[in-house]
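pasting for ref
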Amino acid sequence: MKTLLTKSKLYALILAFFLVVSTMPLTAQNVFAETTLGVDSDGYLLITSEDELVEHLMSANKAYKSELSKNFRLTKDLDLSKYTKLKNIGRSANYESNPLFKGNFDGNGHTIRNVNLSEGGIFSNIDANASVKNLSIENASISAKSTEYPGILASKNLGTIENCKVVNSNINSSQSGTGGFVGQNVGTISKSAVINTNVNAEKSMQVGGFAGFNGYSSKFGTIDQCFADVNVVGSANVGGFVGKAEKGNISNTYAVGSVKANSNEKIGGFAGILASPSQLKNVYASNDVNASSGGPLAGWKGSSFNNPGEVVNGYYNSDKPKPTTEMQAYGGITAKTTAEMTAPAFLNSIAGDSSSVWTQDANHNNGMPYLSAVLPPETAPLVPPKAPVKFVICNYSKDTNTFKKLKEFTVQPEKEDSVVLDLMNRAKAENKFTFTSEASTWGEFVTSIDDIDAPKPDGWMFNVNDVQSPVGVSSASFNGGETILWFYGCDQNHYKAPPLAKIENPAEEFVEINSKEDLMKLSGSTDDQLLSKNYKLNKDIDLSGVNFEPIGSLEHPFTGKFFGQKHTIKNLNIEKDKDSKGVGFFAAIKGAVVKDLKIENAKVKGGAVIGVLVGEAQVDASAGKNNLIAHCNVSGIVEAKGERVIKVADAGGLVGAAQEATDPNTYDYATTTIFDAHADVKVTADVGAKDKAISGHVGGLVGHNKGKIIDSSSKGDILGGNTTGGLVGYNDGSVRGSKSTGNVKGAFNVGGFFGASGPYSATKDSYSTGDVKPVEDTKAEFIGGFAGTISGKVENCISTGTVTPGWSWNGGFAGKIDGSLTGPNATIKDVYGNCNDFNNETLKAFGNYMPNPSDTALTAAAEKMQVDKKTSENLVNEKFGANINHDDTQSKLDIERVEAKIVVPNPVLLDSEDVLNSSRAAVNSLTKEQQKKLNKDKLEALEKAEKTLNKIKTEPTLGFLDSAALNKDFNVEFDGSFGKIKFEEGKAKGLKLRVDSDYKYFADASGNLHPKAKVSIKIDGVEKTLAYGTDYTSEEGSTIISFSSSFLKSLKPGSYVGRIQTNAGYAEFTLAIQSKQAAIGQTTGGQATRKARLGRVNTGDSTNTAAFVIFPMAIIATIGLSLGRKKLNK
């Protein structure tokens, strides 16, 4: 019972709590507990400061998503000029990951000024149930590089926008669907305007002064009582009000200002595209329409639509420029002069059935009708003349890497001049300078100034008040009073010029290096202050006997300038361990200039990221830190014994790794440019592993290139593992006008020019002449005369070197091509490779080429690439002005092929004869002059081997080892050596001779004789080969020959000469076999011994006639003596 009462009390307390809470007043603290904003009587959160707006809606804090569904109201004008990292309000279509704005935003008649956004406008996406009203945006600066459908107020509108303005603003975009107010409208917009604003999307389509798109896909858009006073620039489908009216209605609107399409077509004074089911009603355009084709009000219906949209009561100003050719016929459009459009009668015409919407007076809109609900600015007084504009022309020397001012002049703008090109044409007409230009998709492109041509990829560039123009000369506007610097742009200056004052006064402070001691102050330094200074080398310096430490480190790169002034550093010696990274004269550079320096006879040894001049060339895009290495020459050796990461050494003759980068926020770009640099360096990358493919990114000039290599070369031999090339190991950047002449050896992705290339790389106007070989004892793959694997663009390139095929994927030009050889988008163009390989067989042009008879274009392209050595060399001479003598290179190849055929066995054995004869025949195939150029060591080794073979064939070069123990029970004796044996006739139970020769040269473990093995004996002057198994057997222990007792008993008394031959040579032995009588005679005294000797038969000599008489008499006497003794015994 007590427990029940306790629970009842608890329930009562909970109920009382909720009753109290339910009666509490709704305050800001309990309704909006997560925010500090106040709230008004309508439930709107009140924004009273810039910080509140930014914190709650334009930053990426954690509360961001939840704020987007609330209602907000401004209480004052806001100035956002101090904010540099603003975010758009509502960022994409998916609410959960990147939410739309779903609330209501009431500007309350206030203005937001000085907004700077790097991607799109104030609102990114406005939801279908959301609204924005009573808001002005002033002096906004918007960029858009990746945002879809960017606009200054909003990118995409699905909801309602009312009574809003964009004033005195700019948007620069590279995206289609750009608008001065919104990018894409599929909601409702009314009583709004864009005033005195620039919309610049010169590379994009569907661009409008007010909206990029109205309606999209299946969704309709509605715009009513709005206007656009805008200068619009786009590529095509450009309209003064809307780029593309796809679905929906636009009514009671007008457009003034100017419209320009860089494609010179598909443009409209009001709409670039007007397609069904869109309608324009009660609209007019009074603007300059700059294109050759399109329409003064609507351009055309577009290529994706069957029918054009409808115009009801539309007008355009016939006094304004318009397209000469109208692309589309539209009804409902009337031309009016300026006088007609400013007359009172036009108000009635444009108002149609909406007379209360329009009004007219002399003080607004230059006297033309305007909208009652959206007041335009008062008509401005006449603009005073603009101040003169100063032009400065500067050239750039690639030899000295400096800018030089050529001339300067001023131009007085006239009223009709609006862009820089207008001023240039005026200056040209006034004979102040000359220039040529050509039209491109993106506008006019200046190709020469004062007869100084800038062939692509070089180009004439311009800065306005020391800031590089983001748009072209035909789009860049001016206000008067500017200084415009024209300069020659190229890879060497990274297409940028310093401030004009620095060009006019280029003096810089330099530390002068006059001795070895001065230079050694930099050795091993990681002092950033020291590394940021500029240095000049005033004399040649010899570093003999000095173990130099790299200047800087990967963490502390050199950031200044080092001018060698064409002096030489000799005998640079750097020795680091296998774990070191960043090894070279400079360990690393960043934002540096190194030029006019020569390093001679260098020895640079270390781990990874290694080169004679620079270990790694680093960049910093956000800080504009580019590198330039120009007019530098190096020679010597580089040895990389380590890895940067797995299977990557980044080892090069000049530079280990050359970097580039793009800032993800600003899209600024920085790179390393290597110009007129040459390396005569033997580069070896080998960590000592059995798998030779482990060392990668190895090149004669650069190990890993992400930058730009121009007019450079390498000629040292290269040994690497994977991605190994004559000039570059792995090319992920661009190379042009360069060559490689060194021989290359590697295991995977190996090429005479580069080992492999990335998908965005480009190689042009280059060649290689070095031979390409796989590393021995590896399953080498992707071996090509020019490249192992090509994934990027290659154009006008040739390889003449000879390929020794690897295990698979071999090609005269490339081991593998990941790209296209045919069609308008071909990535491989005008390339040739020597397809006669080292074995004098024909390779495919590229290893992964699979002939397809039905693809005739590919077959033709592959066959064109496939040439012989002579043709490839003639092409190099013709295209690149080289001086290759084919007779010399062919003779050299013949010699190398012969050298490859010279095989000297070790040891030299009897079965080496065929190999040595073949080697000698190869040598004899050359002329006497060619033979003199053969490798002397190889020739001497061959001659020595031939002499050795002759000796082991003709002389007993093998000896006998101690065989006493083997024969202790065999009744045989050795007479002074183990090759001289004697025994009594019929008494030998066996004989074993141990020959000083490895048993494998006589027989295998199973007893199978070597083809060159035999045992023989001379009988009656004739050599008899003994039968294995019957006459003798063999066993290990050096080589032991066991003669059978039956064979030994078969021999008559006398002296025999025998031979035991193995593959290593032969040993000669003698057998002395005594007759039984001779043995007995030796026991009876000297006379018997003498008689026995007279009776001995030497089977190896001619027959002694006297023996036939003496021998029988001796036998008779012996028998008689024996019988006499028997009688006496009885």
